[in-house]
Amino acid sequence: MTELQTPSQTSGPLFGFALIFDGVDQAVPPEAPGAVRLGGHVIDGAGIPIALPDCFIEVWHDDQWARARTDTDGHYSVLVRKPAARELPDGEVAAPHLNVTVFSRGLLKQALTRVYFPDEARANAADPILGLVPEGDRGLLVASADGDALRFDIHLQGENETPFFAF
Amino acid sequence: MAVLEREDVNPPYLHPAYEITVHRAPSKRLIEVPHGWFHHSSGPVWGRIAVRPGDNDLTNKHAGRPVGQTITLSGRVLDSDGRGIPHTLIEIWQTNASGAYLDPADPGFMSLDPNFTGAGRTITDSEGRYHFRTIKPAAYPGELGGLFRPAHIHTSLFGPLLGSRLITQCYFEGDPLLDRDPILNSIPDPRGIDRLLARFNSAGTEVGGVDSALAYDWDIVLRGPAATPMED
């Protein structure tokens, strides 16, 4: 038997003065080798980007962590680098990826997803977690190249709803 | 295979009484990950969020004394296996005593207090204990059908695992607005609502000085490693 967990509540829209500060969007310094901008829109079920002030995302993986609020266009941007592939205890290999968490007014609990990298097709095809996603939806978890940056839109609902993970 | 039951009293994503969930609640089936996945999926790191001594006192950040009732909010951060979680970050944010957030997105119905910002941070000690000193936040009229939201303190915690990340709100026991708040009552289980109520601690209340504060206790339980169903 375990202790009952404290339940989640929405972040609301008025977190900025506490959670957002200069540099919080940088998981790696700009001069770090491999540093790349990862950005996209967070979009609701009506197809409308979730604009300032309502929403922020966090990315993390190993030693990387960053947080970014969506702007007036509903666009977020973080500075990250592609992590290495990692062998799992059972011998399978996890493709490079970052965990992505969405917090928003209107989300009573965070939505948890992952972003994979477009230049890792072979590793992505063998990734055991991506393999759990319905085949037709896997592409929704792979960023696209956008010039020097990576684009990853997050759809909370709708035909292109981002696959989210139970936790 | 023995499975440790994990009771989940989280709100559902979709709660129509909180109208904006209708367009924002994920609606596809969530992807279930294998047992144990959270053990080899790294938790969040937050080392770049600077926490300075004194960041847990929200009452002394300006020249003057903030308006309102000084309170302490204290407790332990535990995992669902009952162990204290040491050295974990807590971030809080809240209104001042009139119900206004300092945030630029605040609608501005209520007055700001030049002596109160309303944001704090702390790190739990080796046994998971934390302590904040602040002003009791106030109810404020919200967007939710014209209702006042009950006084609350937004609270963000990381914990050691990807699955232990939590953002929630701490409310105050006995507040008559609790029963009608659509956000709090998105939690389907009364025991879950109870988890979000800070309790007045008479014995912990300081008396007799200009710094007297009403004491409130609130323990926070994050998901622990054993809360993932495990094979025996």
Q: Could you characterize what this model shows?
A:
The complex is a heterodimer of chains A (about 170) and B (about 230). Chain A has about 170 residues and is mainly beta. Chain A has one domain (about 15-155): Sandwich (Protocatechuate 3,4-Dioxygenase, subunit A), CATH 2.60.130.10. Chain A contains two helices and eleven strands; from the N terminus they run αββββββββαβββ. Chain A has helices at about 15-20, 120-125, and strands spanning about 35-45, 55-60, 65-70, 75-80, 85, 95, 95-105, 110-115, 145, 150, 155. In chain A, the strands form three sheets. In chain A, strands 1, 4, 9, 10 and 11 form a five-stranded mixed β-sheet that branches. In chain A, strands 3-2-7-8 form a four-stranded antiparallel β-sheet, with no helix packed on it. A two-stranded antiparallel sheet of chain A has the order 5-6. The longest helix of chain A is centred in the last third of the chain and has 6 residues, at about 120-125. The mean pLDDT of chain A is about 95. Chain B is mainly beta and about 230 residues long. Chain B has a single domain (about 20-225), classed as Aromatic compound dioxygenase (Protocatechuate 3,4-Dioxygenase, subunit A). Chain B has two helices and eleven strands; from the N terminus they run αββββββββαβββ. In chain B, the strands form two sheets. In chain B, strands 1, 2, 3, 4, 7, 8, 9, 10 and 11 form a nine-stranded mixed β-sheet that branches. In chain B, strands 5-6 form a two-stranded antiparallel sheet. In chain B, strand 5 (about 140) and strand 6 (about 150) form a beta hairpin. Chain B is globular. The N and C termini of chain B lie close together (about 5 Å). The model of chain B has no long low-confidence stretch (mean pLDDT about 90). Classes of the chains: A mainly beta (about 170), B mainly beta (about 230).
